[in-house]
């Protein structure tokens, strides 16, 4: 079963998903000349119905009805078993902000709370969504989230020095209020050359975002293209026709064996002659 592990702290940039009538408006934050995209919501709702927690058979019954089982927890409240429409959940997971999307969770009985997806499971063969975990979010409390880093531009080391751009770090962990979380961070790498490394400390910062990733952690650099050495036909033929020399140890051992055999053969006639002389004397 494919399984998405829950992050220690997750939050996201709100985005209009899960409701066909939801309307999203975008805002752009500029920090030190580099653009950070963030998204604000006017309306975004995921409806959930309470269900009775129990065995796997009960969970299968929920799926047969076209829903998937889930659980809601967090904000100091007891966990609540629910069922939700998997189509609305998939819209959230496939959106730009993905599982970091914050939305209104509407529960039967009139309860509404801000929530986000923190864990989900897929059926490994057909890829159907099987289960989901939702977490209540307090909009006035700072949360931790990993946001993607998007490299913009063509590095100088690629344009003029024939290198290639390599991105080692694709997400950074930050801490901020849910409403201030960017969907991604854009950084200009057009001046990046050989020998220069873009690090977390070089990413755009402001007073609303606190970077938790190591400031010295490399994000990207320009590296050289590794050329593959191709053997010429002549070299291949020469290597195939070469006869490996017999190890000297084997030759030496063979020569010593032959020498010992000759010495033994020479000793045998001498012994025969001595025996003949003894018989004549007698």
Structure description:
This protein is of the alpha+beta class and 282 residues long. Among the domains are: 2-143, Ribosomal Protein L25, Chain P, CATH 2.40.240; 245-281. Helix content is 23%, strand content 36%. It has five helices and 16 strands. The strands form three sheets. A six-stranded mixed barrel has the order 4-6-5-9-8-7. The longest helix has 34 residues, at 248-281. The radius of gyration is 37 Å and the shape is flat. It starts with a strand and ends with a helix. The relative contact order is 0.13.
Short description:
With 282 residues, the chain is α+β, with helices and mostly antiparallel strands.
Strand portion: 35-45%
Query: Got a strand count?
Result: 16
The helix content is: 10-25%
Provide the CATH superfamily of the domain at 2-143. Ribosomal Protein L25, Chain P
Give the helix/strand class. alpha+beta
CATH class wording of the domain at 2-143: Mainly Beta
What are the segments in which pLDDT stays under 50 over at least 5 consecutive residues? 1-43
Q: In order across it, which strands form the biggest sheet? A: 4-6-5-9-8-7
The total count of helices amounts to: 5
Which term fits the overall shape? flat
Tell me, rounded to a whole number, the average pLDDT. Answer: 75
Return the CATH topology of the domain at 2-143.
Answer: Ribosomal Protein L25, Chain P
User: Would you list the SSEs in sequence order as H and E?
Assistant: EEEEHEEHEEEEHEEEEEEHH
The biggest beta sheet is recorded as: 6 strands, mixed, barrel
Distance between the termini: 101 Å
Radius of gyration: 37 Å
CATH architecture of the domain at 2-143: Beta Barrel
């Amino acid at each position: 079963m494919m399984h998405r592990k829950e992050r220690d702290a997750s939050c996201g940039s709100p985005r209009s998903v899960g409701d066909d009538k939801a309307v999203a408006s975008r805002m752009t934050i500029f920090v030190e000349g580099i653009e950070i995209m963030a998204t604000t919501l006017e309306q975004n709702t995921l409806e959930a119905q309470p269900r009775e927690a129990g065995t796997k058979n009960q969970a299968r019954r929920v799926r047969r009805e076209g829903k998937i089982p889930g659980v809601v927890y967090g904000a100091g409240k007891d966990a609540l078993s629910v069922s939700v429409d998997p189509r609305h959940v998939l819209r959230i997971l496939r959106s730009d902000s993905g599982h970091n999307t914050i939305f209104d969770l509407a529960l039967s009985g009139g309860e509404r709370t801000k929530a986000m997806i923190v864990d989900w499971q897929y059926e490994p063969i057909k890829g159907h969504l099987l289960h989901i975990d939702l977490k209540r979010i307090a909009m006035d409390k700072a949360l931790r989230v990993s946001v993607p880093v998007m490299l913009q531009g063509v590095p100088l080391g690629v344009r003029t020095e024939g290198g290639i751009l390599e991105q080692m770090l694709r997400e950074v962990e930050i801490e901020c209020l849910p409403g201030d979380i960017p969907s991604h961070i854009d950084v200009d790498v057009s001046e990046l050359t050989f020998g220069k490394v873009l690090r977390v400390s070089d990413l755009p910062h402001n007073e609303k975002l606190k970077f938790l990733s190591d400031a010295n952690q490399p994000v990207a650099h320009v590296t050289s293209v590794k050329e593959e050495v191709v053997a010429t036909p002549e070299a291949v033929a020469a290597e195939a026709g070469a006869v490996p020399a017999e190890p000297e140890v084997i030759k030496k051992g063979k020569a010593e064996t032959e020498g010992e055999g000759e010495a033994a053969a020479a000793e045998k006639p001498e012994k025969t002659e001595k025996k003949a002389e003894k018989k004549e004397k007698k």
